[in-house]
Amino acid sequence: MDVAKTAGGNGDTRALRALLAARDFPALLRATDPTTANASAEHWLYRGKALEGLLQPDAAATCYREGLAQGPEDAPLHLALGQLALQQGDRPGALEALERARDLNPDNLDCYAALLHLVPLAPDGPEAARILARALDHRRSDAARARALFLLGQLQVEAGRDRTGFVHYAAGNRLTGDSLEARKREYRLGERLFRLDRRTFAAVARSLPPCKALVVTGLPRSGKSLVESLLAEHPAIAAGGEFAGLRRAIADIPGKELPRRLSEAAASSRSPFIEAYREHPLADAGSRWLVDSSPANLPRIGYFALLHPEAPIVLCRRRARDLGLALFFKKFRSGHGYSYALETAGRAIASAERLIDHWQAVLPNPLLVVDYEELVTDPEGTRARLFALLGLAPPPRPLRSGEAEDWRLFPSKSPGAACAPRPSLLGFADRFEEELAPLVKAYEAAST
């Protein structure tokens, strides 16, 4: 049975949701074709999500507005429009849409999470009371209750109630971590990665066209999004987001077979990495490079370099305490199970640093390591080094609205599109020295 046709023909929400979860955006777009599907509010919502997934934000915004023209009281459409405006750096548009979504559905946690990019919420106000009620409602799933606890943690910390806020975060992390399989709670790197050395790369015969990937990677909250935004100021570079092209390219190859299979691919002038990036929505946008900022690429860079030593790579890292706190304060939608306990987060940071040092020592690629602290205190110097890595002259700086400084920063959140690098989060973890002791101990033990 054709899921797309079924979804489009009878408005089957489950089918549309499945396509969105599978990130099959072309099929989702076909399933919500307005000429064949019932144009309900749900139709416009899923069609807009498909367009967002295909990196067509203007078309997505138009889609949401078309849906709201037919049903102006639909809270999910207002929320989707507000979240999109937030991503695009449109503060007034985001605030208007999100406040409307909140008024229509004051129990939606995603709406509060988005609003916190723009305005504070009182830790003892009515919104906090609603969020607390969700956290205490045992009829809800652990994931939903944990989501509420993470939001309560942010409200308390932003109000200066650090101890209370950390207690909320710890409870949310426990709920989330306890639901994960044991094997998903650690950040594991195979020792075979560290056996890839300079001789390994020198021994591979290559005759391949260049891959347009520009890999920017590291753990989440280490500055990848900021680096991507700086790079995307140049017309030769497209911001591709967390596409995870390296993972996609070799997902079906067993780890022990990777070096042999990739050597065979190089000898036959085939590259699974080139093929993977051809599937990106911006593959044909005319840019010379396509940034892929997925954390999942970090352990796979060595395999990529076997075939593409010409591809530039940027590795991002951050002071362990600040990074650990940012991870612990973040409720990820999927993956990153190591972030839900302080000890596992500390070990993950140490492992990632060890791998970054290894790649810096052995990779044949043009490579730059960017420290978060340097990125936000010297953005112009970092910008110059990034473009020097690519052999490009830095483009003129884009004009920034004065509203850019009004975007609110918090350790768990990526900056908005209009937010310039700012050092306000440096040393934020020092406020939690006692609470972070288990993370620091695990990090130091794993670093020796």
From TrEMBL:
UniProt-recorded name of the protein: Uncharacterized protein
InterPro entries: P-loop_NTPase, TPR-like_helical_dom_sf, TPR_rpt, TPST-like
Keyword Transferase in record: yes
TPR repeat extents: 75-108
SMART domains tied to this protein: TPR
Family matches, as Gene3D superfamilies: P-loop containing nucleotide triphosphate hydrolases, Tetratricopeptide repeat domain
Keywords tagged on the record: TPR repeat, Transferase
Top-level taxon of the source organism: Bacteria
Keyword presence, Kinase: no
GO molecular function, one term: protein-tyrosine sulfotransferase activity
